[in-house]
Amino acid sequence: MIKQLIRYHIKQGIWPLATFFLLAVFSYGFSSFSAIANFETYDREMKVDLIKTVLVSPSFAGFGALLIALFAILMVGQERGSGRSLILHALPFHKKHLFLIKIGIGMAVLIILPLLGFFASWLILHGVGGIDPFAYVTWTGLASDFFKYFLFDMTIFTIFLFAGTIAGDIIGQVLIGTFLLFVNYFTFFAVAAVTTLGFGLQDSYTSSLDFLMTVTTPFPLLFETNDITGAVIYNIALTLILGAISHRLYVRSENERLGRFTVFPKSHPLFIILFTVYTTLLLAAFIGVISSENQILYWVAVLILAWPAFSSYRRMIGWSR
């Protein structure tokens, strides 16, 4: 039964999985041959960086994040609002085990493919190019890069799985997942807009919110090379917490509510208010910037945009249905 369910979920996400394979071929295979062709033209520092990016590919982690989010959408969101969810939940198999299978497949993809890419790149560098990678890099450095890239992809995967457990269809999962992924940036720019455009305070006022851009987001794991200890701790905690909550919510979701924005209608007012506030403040900020940062025009824009945004989200999500 478990093997059949695993095969079923793999078939659900066959397109992102196939793209994952192609991405691995380009990220590891082609980059290895490219590195060999120009290796002797670089100095030692550049050789170290090149070997690291070949053996533990950041491009695979970056583009893989899009694919693993799509994989989460296909495994959870696609079954929402369709007969597939009812069929799966009617099986003599506990729903919590269904969720564990989904998250287990995602983890396996994010571990196995990079490891295969690592060994393939090592063989190409050593066998074809005559380059000993470990003359330039260490196991510790490679393991550190591998872990932070895995954590980056795993955090995004967990965010979209969490969105899928509370969403009633694919559209809801995409909107909620995207909002949760970028909510720290939305918050930073919304607060910056209110303080600088709305109240005329100095830009230095928002410096206390820099942690929203450097810690409370998975993106420093991919792009930052300095101290990212805070980001690592935060993303580990976020992944574990969202994974545990998703595990419980997936079990408790009601089949008869599938196909709606969420399977928990009591949360609809919260989403409507959140989306309205962020949309209004950010759109008003754009108007404020192009109007030479005029405070009066900024608040007029907020007042004008608030009701249309609220009304649109209320129609799309439904206040309490």
List keywords for this structure.
single chain; globular; mainly alpha
Tell me briefly what this model is.
The chain is mainly alpha-helical and 321 residues long. The chain contains 13 helices and no strands. α4 packs antiparallel against α6 (95-128).
Chart the SSEs and their pairings.
Blueprint: H1 2-12, H2 14-38, H3 44-55, H4 58-75, H5 83-90, H6 95-128, H7 139-166, H8 170-198, H9 211-214, H10 220-223, H11 229-252, H12 268-290, H13 295-317
Account of the 3D structure:
With 321 residues, this protein is mostly helical. The protein has a domain at 2-182 and 231-262. The protein contains 13 helices and no strands. The longest helix is centred in the middle third of the chain and has 34 residues, at 95-128. It is globular and about 65 Å long. The mean pLDDT is 83.
Name the structural class: mainly alpha
Supply the number of helical segments. Answer: 13
Largest sheet: none
Task: Assign an overall shape.
Answer: globular
Give the topology string: H per helix, E per strand.
Answer: HHHHHHHHHHHHH
What's the count of strands? 0
Overall pLDDT confidence: 83
- Which spans of ≥5 residues are poorly predicted at pLDDT below 50? none
Strand content: under 5%
How would you describe the oligomerization state of the chains in this entry?
single chain
Give the helix level as a range of percent: over 70%
Spatial separation of the terminal alpha carbons: 36 Å
> Radius of gyration, rounded?
23 Å
